[in-house]
Amino acid sequence: MQDMHQHYNGVLVGLSYAVSVLGSFTALQFALGIPSAQNEKQRWGAILAAGAAMGGGAIWAMHFIAMLACNMGTQVTYDVLLTTVSAVLAIVACSLGLAIVGSGAFRFINLLFAGVLMGLGVAGMHYLGMTAMLSSAQVSYDGGIVALSVGIAIVASMAALWLAFNLRGKLQMLGSALVMGVAVCGMHYTGMSAMEVSQGDTLPAGFEQGMQGEHLGLAIFVVVVLLLAVALGISIVRQQRRAALSI
To answer: Which of 81, 102, 141, 199 has the fewest CB atoms nearer than 10 Å to its CB?
Structure first.
């Protein structure tokens, strides 16, 4: 079988980083409400909001847009069910990580456990999302690079969780979001480099029913950015109201 080479759409690569930064910043904003929550309902509301922004926006949306940026030289569609499950997995993993670290006093052992759990969830999302690709190409993976990508996911998750509970200033959060965007993209593109693609002969079952479209990446970017912008606006308004009430 003939080896195939990957090429990337630079615009979509840039958009994948931008959505990761916005998702990270939004998640950090929501995470402010976890330690300051007055009851369990407020606490879990903040955890799920931050987990959705991080897992769904900063990680999954970045991942899927970056997948669409990759041109393997053959037509590709994406299994709807597996793609949806991968998004849910990312949100659940991030929410659990935030819940563990945000329970009681901040402790390193909690950070380590939560970072490993969240990192494995993020890596699982990534490779499940890659499994969702439907094409005639035959895909295999370099085990060493896969292990490296999982290690990056764990370290990046620990860093994200530490930042979520140790930063307060807007400029600090923006700087951290920029760094987290690099970390998330680094994990994704390391994982992509582990993929070895060869030309196949037959299309898999479900190919015609898979998600596809020339502007799908841009559409996902626009929808996710709008959702994150609305969520961020709500979070900032709530913070201002709490600050006004505490005066």
So the answer is: 81
